[in-house]
Write a structure and sequence with these properties.
By secondary structure, this protein is mainly α. The chain has helices spanning 2-15, 17-27, 33-65, 69-88, 92-95, 100-108, 113-122, 125-137, 141-163, 165-210. The protein has one domain (2-210).
Length: 211
């Protein structure tokens, strides 16, 4: 249970689906309720697939390019920290890569569930690198099942938030969403810093054993 809560909290902080609510509202303001529900469920499915592939197949990408897990954790840690600062400074959309040109293009397209909603706005480099690193930490079957369950719950939360995005946006208001995003930003920075510290410690320990 503790592992599930840890993975769920870490993913929730990095993905920050609440911060995506106002962007979803803006991109779907001219859509019907049925269309919003369809986009919501496909966004959640796409995020779940991306997280799943990152968790199980990401290590093979590292092996192909000859990247060590500690190097990934340090790089991913910086990305996660940067995302956290974006949330603290109210630069969420910019930090997620949803620029005005992308948003304008999304408005013209029939389906925005995959991009920009699922990637890069929700499942961005920070969450992908986080999951690749987690796969190295949790190699037992039971641990991996728990990790998959946490990803499924995150996808469910994303679906529920996107489905009721317009109501959530009205209930929380702009100030409420900003306040929650800043809290998530602080937690996200802490996660990124912890990854960097643990990776540097592993490298130093490795150097000690080689001498």
């Amino acid at each position: 249970m503790e592992l599930f809560v840890f993975i769920f909290a870490a993913l929730f902080s990095v993905l920050n689906p609440l911060g995506a609510v106002p962007i979803f509202v803006g991109l779907t303001q001219d859509d019907t309720l049925k269309e919003r529900q369809r986009i919501s469920i496909w966004t959640a499915i796409n995020v779940f697939i991306i997280l799943l592939v990152s968790f199980f197949a990401g290590q093979y990408v590292l092996s192909f390019f000859g990247i060590s897990i500690d190097a990934l954790r340090i790089a991913g840690g910086f990305i996660i920290v940067n995302s956290g600062f974006s949330l603290l400074n109210r630069r969420f959309s910019k930090g997620r890569g949803v620029h005005k040109e992308v948003e304008a293009d999304a408005q013209k397209r029939n389906d925005i569930a995959l991009t920009p909603l699922a990637i890069p706005m929700l499942a961005g480099p920070g969450s992908i690198s986080l999951l690749i690193a987690m796969h190295q930490d949790y190699k037992e079957m039971e641990q991996q099942i728990i990790a998959v369950a946490a990803m499924a719950c995150i996808a469910l939360v994303i679906f529920l938030l996107m489905r009721g995005a317009h109501k959530v946006s009205q209930a929380l208001g702009a100030s409420g969403i900003v306040a929650i995003s800043r809290i998530m930003g602080f937690i996200t920075i802490a996660i990124g810093v912890q990854y960097i510290i643990s990776s540097i410690s592993n490298i130093i320990e490795g150097l000690k054993f080689t001498h």
